[in-house]
Structure formats: C-alpha cells, structure tokens
Design a protein that fits this description.
Blueprint (H helix, E strand, L loop, with lengths): L1 E5 L6 H13 L2 E6 L10 H10 L3 E2 L3 H6 L10 H13 L2 H8 L4 E3 L4 E3 L19 H6 L4 E4 L6 E6 L2 E5 L3 E3 L5 E5 L13 E7 L4 E7 L3 H10 L4 H9 L2
Parallel strand pairs: 1-2, 2-3, 5-6, 6-10
Antiparallel strand pairs: 1-11, 4-5, 7-8, 7-10, 9-12, 11-12
The protein binds zinc ion.
Length: 241
C-alpha cells in the first residue's frame, strides 16, 4: 500500500488534479491531507469536493479554520484576509461544516499528522528549523509525523538527542531515528520551485519520497485574477514563493 500525503492545496484545482494523477500513476490507493484545502486559490469548493471524493483522511489547517469561522483572522495579513472573505462566499453550508468538523491531529499505526506542530495544534505553530521541532519530537507517539503549514518540504531526523535537517527528497526511515516530515504545498509552494509538491509514503518499505508535479499554472493564475482575488496570489505561483 502506498499513501499519497498532501498538504496546503489552497483552492488550486489545477495543482491538485496534477498531483492526484501522478499519485495514481505511482500506485497510491490512500490519501492523507494535512490541511489548508482552501484559501488563496480560486476553486475552494471544487478542492473540497475532490478531497472528499478521494476519501482523503484530513486534518484542519489554519485557513480551513479561518474560513469556517472557527478561528480569528487578526493574525492574517491583508491578502490572506481578503482570500478568507472571498472563499467564505464560495462555500456551501455543507462545505463549511466539513471544514468545521476536521480534527486537528490524526494518528494510525504508522504515523501521525498535524498541520503546524504537535504542541498546541490549535495555535498552528510553524516548524521552520530544527529548534522548532523539539516539542513535536517530544510529543510524538509514532516514529514519524507529517506536517505542512510552511509550504516548504523538509525532512528532520532525530537520532538520540541530535536533530538534523536533511535536504534529501527521498529517504528510507530507520528504526533508530524519529522523523518530522514537511510534505510541502500542493497549491502554493514557497521553496522557489513552482511545481506542486507532495509526498508518497510506503509503510512496508519505510520509504518517503517528496515529489513535484508540473501543472497548468497559467490557468490557475487566470482564475485567481478573474475572481478578483489579489493579483499577488496569482503572481507568486510563477516563482514558487
Ligand atoms: Zn497553508
């Protein structure tokens, strides 16, 4: 069984569809989504529908919470706030309930997942460097935790007391270590690579691959502009920032 691990779709249907096609071609049968299905992109309702259709096991992101009114947006910048307001208008009561009902964290036999970090998942803290991983490593129930939120793919490995940030895109996990893996962003990558980012995890082989999918960026950008969303949201997709 291979799992597709996706995060931060942000209403970008073109990126989402491209990732799912690649996942299917690589034998993925089960999907896990680490939150922020909506916000920024022009197809929030379609992305929720697709996420439900593929039966992705999903945890909540801060944008999901903001859009369904579960969280205040005073920490959001003006552009993010505008996107939240616009997105709210696009969603049905049922969509909003779906977002509202998402859990903050999830665990199975193989791994855990949370949008930000395991310490106070409801605060959506960012894991930007090795120091930020301390609490999450401490609180992990499994030897692997998938996260999102920063839109930058990263693999942290802890062996004994030492935490290392690896720039590898493919790893085989080792029983002697524990791992925090950020799977990057499907719909708005911010690591300088414009292609949609996602991960495939094979729990039988203990193998994690962070992959990139080409998609029709122009189409996603045109939709953002035509919707009257801030132009910067279209522009940043070209540069992956
Ligand atoms: Zn996000």
């Amino acid at each position: 069984m291979r799992y597709g691990i996706i995060s931060d779709i942000h209403g970008n249907l073109e990126a989402f569809e491209a990732v799912l096609e690649e996942c299917r071609n690589q034998g993925v049968r089960q999907y896990f989504c680490i939150g922020d299905i909506v916000g920024y992109g022009a197809n929030p309702a379609e992305c929720i529908a697709l996420n439900r259709k593929i039966k992705a096991i999903t945890v909540a992101g801060n944008h999901d919470w903001a859009v369904c009114g579960k969280m205040k947006t005073d920490q959001f910048n003006d552009v993010a706030q505008e996107a939240v307001d616009w997105t709210q208008q696009q969603l049905s009561t049922e969509d909003l309930k779906y977002l509202n009902d998402l859990p903050l964290e999830w665990v199975n036999d193989d791994f855990q997942m949370v949008h930000g970090s395991l310490n106070h998942p409801e605060e959506f803290n960012y894991i930007m460097d090795t120091r930020d991983t301390n609490d999450t490593f401490y609180m992990m129930k499994k030897n692997l935790c998938f996260v999102g939120h920063t839109h930058k793919p990263q693999i942290y490995a802890k062996t004994g007391d030492y935490i290392a940030l690896s720039d590898a895109q493919n790893i085989v996990t080792d029983k002697a270590s524990t791992y925090v893996v950020n799977v990057g962003s499907v719909g708005q990558p911010r690591d300088g690579n414009r292609d949609a980012c996602y991960a495939i995890f094979d729990p039988d082989l203990n193998e994690i691959n962070i992959n990139r999918a080409n998609y029709d960026i122009r189409k996603a950008q045109d939709k953002i502009l035509n919707a009257g969303l801030p132009a910067v949201l279209a522009k940043r997709l070209s540069i992956g920032q």
